[in-house]
Every structure is written in C-alpha cells, then in structure tokens.
Write a structure and sequence with these properties.
Oligomer: single chain
CATH class of the largest domain: Alpha Beta
Number of helices: 20
Shape: flat
Strand content: 5-15%
Number of domains: 4
Largest sheet: 7 strands, mixed
Helix content: 40-55%
Structural class: alpha+beta
Radius of gyration: 31 Å
CATH topology of the largest domain: Nucleotidyltransferase, domain 5
CATH architecture of the largest domain: 2-Layer Sandwich
C-alpha cells in the first residue's frame, strides 16, 4: 500500500525500545499483533518497498490491508511477549497464527491456608484464596528457579494436600533432606510457613544474596576448570534473573470495537444490494457457539445506523436442544429473542392504554376484524403477497442477519413465520465464500469482497461471532473454576459430579456444613470433614 502521511508521521515518532504493535485495517479492526525488540526498526520494515514485492503472499496481503497502527512500549522483551499473547487472545487477529488457542503462560501458586502449603504450577488464575506469581514468559527458566527454591528453602514437592507419616516412607524429598518433613513433625506448621513466606519473597525478586552466592560458586568452578559445573551455575543464574525480573501487569488496553469509515454509504449500498425500500437503521445479527455440542450459547448483536449498539446486545444459553444441532439452536435463539420483544411491545401498549384511559374500549367492528385477519394471513404468506402491511411494533429490527447458510436461514425464517414477523427482511451470510442467502432465492448473492455492503455485513457477523465465543469462553472458565475439587485427594469424577449435582454449584458447596456434605452419595463423615477443611483453606485471601 502507498505510505500515507499518517503512517509516515507515526513511523518518525517511534522509539528504539521494546514493545508491541497492532496493525489495523480501514475499519479500525486489529488484523495483526506483533512484538519487537526495537519498535522503530521492526515496524518500519513493513513499509519497505523491497518487502512489499516479496514472494510471501500472506505478508503482502497484510501490508496491503494496513491502514493504521498503534504501539505500546514496554520495559523488556519478555514483557512484550506476555502482552502480545494477551492481545492476540483478546482480538483474534486474522493474520496471527500463534497464541490463538486458549493456552496461557505458566504461573506459580501457593495457598497459605493449606495445612502444609505446597508450590505448584498452573495456567489459570482462580479466586481460591491462593497467592499467584507470574505469568512467566520462559517456562524452562521458571522450572529451574522453582527447583532451586525448593532446595534453598527446604520446601516439599509431594502432591498430597495433607502429607502423613505413611507418605514420608516413600518421599525422596525428605530422605534427600530437600524438605524439612513437616508431615512427621520435624518442624511445626508456623516454622514451615516461615520457609514458605521466605520463598514467596524470593519469587517476588528478593534474591540478591543468593545471586551473589551463585556467581561466586560459578567463578570458583571456572577457576578450578570445572567447566560443566560452571556452565550449570551460569544457566541457573540466567534462569533466576529471568524469573525474578519485575514485570508489568497488563490488565486492559483502551481499544474499542471497530467502526465503519462511512456507515451511511455502507447502509445505502446494503439497501440497494438487497432491494430494501430504505437503508436499515437497525440490524440484528445472530450467531451460535458450542464445543462438540456442549455449552451451547447464542449471541444477538445490534447495529444502529451502521455502528455497534452495545446497549442492545444480548446473549443466551441454549436450553431445549440436545446434542450438536446448529439449526435447532438458531431456531431457539430467534424464537426467544422476538417472542420477548413482542411481549415487551404488548406490555408497553397495555401501559399506554392504561395511562390514556383506553384499557377497555368498544368492541372491534366485524368489518375491521375481517381486515385484520386478512392482513395477518397476508403477512404469513410473505412480503410479496402483502404489499401494504401494518407497521411492525417498535423495538424490532429493520434487518436480521444470520451467521450461516441456507440451513440456519430456513430455521430462523420458520420461527419468524410462527411469530407473524415475515415482514422483517432476513438474510444469511455463509463464511466460506461470503455468500448472502435470501429466503426463496435459488442462488446466493455474491458481492465483491470490497463491496461496502459486504464489509458492513462482515463487521456485524464478526461482532456476533466475537460475543458468542466470549460468552462460551466465560461459561467454560466458570466450569473450569470448579476443578478446584480436582486438587482434593481421594475425589474422582464420579464424586465430583455427585457433589455438583447435589449442591448445584461450587459456591453452594462452599457454604455447606460437613453434615450436609456427608449426605452426598459416596461421602462419609471423615471424608466430609476433610473436604470441609480443604474448602475452608481456599475460601479466604
């Protein structure tokens, strides 16, 4: 693409510092996120003429789509890596490949409320009262550092929640004297907590003395020509510095939804392409998201005058569909959405009549009743058979966009017909070839990929897809949060399912007494008491 004045000015102001950059298209959508050790040098490479003439078609397509870019300066390259991964998961840019899954960087957790606290690795931060350190960009360095910390502070590495003397018999950590063996009373709980708190300070960066000791040992080993030991110490020092380096926490960046450059033009082009009498002021888009038929959710996004109207976004869990059936899910979403809108419109009419004293009224004459019935029948037959229809109730959209092909579109049309809403134009957008499907049309409508009407529909479709996926991920995270039970020894999937089925949620289980827990099949008094202590250890900060 030609180097615009805006990009040229931004390139001239870029610092020679590490950071991340976000490439955006003409609609403001983030299409690529990258990190750089030197922002000015890295970003400038995208606009060199020699790079634009390269053989990499994907890179050329990216450069041609860039309309603007933003940068965020950080203090180090590891910080840039952490922020890059976070933003890719947030925006899902079309030209990024790495970090688009739900895998997260490694962290360390410890719960000081446990009877004998234990450090462990995790990739998910839960509200369980534990202390978390990280995330860390270099997992290898983190594992080396934790191995050093266990030896330095004599920490346990066994898995049981509450180790017993029976566990001590087979514990290599205790026999090698890496651990002070609080399980057999070698130290009190308060003494062991002091060791754990010292390790927490160590992970927070208070390790200057230890670094000095390791550097002295490395120099002595090198002087004695013990080069393998010196190299091991050198790698350990590097890992320790990487792990305990202070990193910035990135909670959120000020980015908003993509907007159209000329929404009025896009709406006019859409009305012309679909043969609508006027540009649709309000458009609603539907999408379905599920994972192998589970956690089925639907999203409804609203665009007003070509721009996102977030106040009217809705999302719902699919309740009546068994298994994986996108057509039935779409039908349920459309039915529930417009049944609710019609009910709200009816209640509003009743309130208006009550305010104006028209709640009773005279009976409808037979001629007018016949006209209403004929109009309703004409609506059910379709717009072509009813050229002069009564106006729709307020709050309904001027156009409905279904994410999918003919199957999803037909399912939506059937539900709209049952509700008497066939006067609302509805279309489907199939992603594979960006085809627009219309009710009753044999062939789909194919607009050019640069057509402003298609660009508008793509923005609505992508936004509905984003909302649906975000809701699905939220439910998935809520379900994963219940896996705190997996840390409790002696509980398998059967007992866990029995607990969640009996109490309904982890929050209700946390409020249960040992006697209530003991009533669950598979739990006795002793196990219920142990589970109660386990949950108490994870209930506070």
């Amino acid at each position: 693409m030609p180097l615009t004045d805006l990009i040229r000015q931004k390139l001239g102001k870029l610092p020679h510092r590490p950071g991340i950059y976000l490439m955006k298209d003409r609609f403001g959508t983030v299409i690529y996120v990258g990190k750089a050790r030197d922002l000015r040098r890295r970003v400038s490479q995208y606009f060199h003429p020699s790079r634009q003439m390269g053989w990499d078609l994907k890179f050329r397509a990216l450069v041609e789509a860039i309309h603007d870019f933003d940068v965020h300066v950080v203090r180090s390259e590891p910080e840039a890596l952490l922020l890059e991964g976070k933003l890719i998961k947030e925006f899902h840019p079309k030209y990024n490949v790495s970090f688009r899954d739900d895998k997260r960087f490694l962290m360390v957790k410890v719960n000081l409320n446990d009877p004998i606290p234990r450090f462990s690795f995790t990739r998910l931060r839960l509200e369980d009262g534990a202390r978390y350190f990280g995330p860390f960009a270099d997992s290898t360095a983190l594992r080396r550092t934790m191995a050093l910390a266990r030896r330095q502070f004599n920490l346990r590495g066994c898995r049981p929640l509450t180790p017993t003397p029976a566990d001590y018999k087979h514990c290599l950590y205790a026999h090698l004297r890496y651990c002070t063996a609080p399980c057999i009373g070698n130290v009190t709980r308060q003494q062991y907590l002091a060791q754990v708190r010292a390790a927490c300070d160590f992970l927070e960066g208070q390790c200057a003395d230890l670094l000095g000791q390791l550097e002295s040992q490395m120099k002595l080993a090198a002087a004695a020509q013990e080069y393998e030991r010196a190299a091991t110490l050198r790698d350990l020092i590097t890992a320790l510095r990487r792990t305990t380096r202070k990193e910035e926490k990135f909670e959120r960046l000020p980015y908003s939804l993509p907007l159209a450059v000329q929404p009025e033009r896009d709406l006019a082009a859409l009305a012309e392409a679909l043969g609508l009498p006027a540009p649709p002021a309000r458009i609603e888009g539907f999408d379905i998201s599920n994972i192998s038929g589970t956690l089925k959710v639907a999203s409804v996004v609203s665009f007003k005058n070509g721009r996102p109207d977030r106040a009217n976004y809705r999302r719902m869990q699919i309740k009546t569909v068994e298994g994986q059936d996108d057509f039935a899910c779409m039908a349920e979403a459309v039915r529930r959405r417009y049944t609710r809108l019609l009910q709200e419109a009816g209640r509003q009419r009743d309130r208006d009549k009550a305010e104006t004293g028209q709640s009773g009224g005279e009976p409808i004459p037979a001629e007018l009743q016949t006209l209403i019935q004929e109009t309703a029948a004409a609506v059910r037959r379709g717009p072509a058979a009813a050229p002069a229809l009564q106006p729709l109730p307020p709050g309904l959209p001027d156009l409905i966009l279904i994410d999918g092909g003919k199957g999803q579109l037909n399912a939506a049309c059937q539900e709209l017909a049952r509700l008497g809403l066939t006067a609302i134009p509805v279309i489907g957008l199939a992603k594979e070839f960006e085809e627009i499907h219309r009710p009753g049309a044999d062939e789909p409508l194919r607009l050019g990929l640069d057509h402003p009407a298609l660009k508008l529909l793509q923005r609505i479709r992508d936004e509905s897809h984003r909302v649906a996926n975000a809701y699905n991920a939220q439910l998935r995270l809520r379900r994963i949060s219940e896996s705190v039970l997996d840390e409790f020894p002696g509980i398998g999937q059967t007992r866990k399912a029995a607990l969640l089925r009996h109490f309904g949620s982890l929050q209700r289980l946390r409020a249960a007494t040992p006697e209530q827990i003991a009533r669950v099949p598979g739990f006795g008094g002793k196990l219920a008491q142990e589970l109660r202590r386990f949950l108490d250890a994870r209930s506070g900060g």
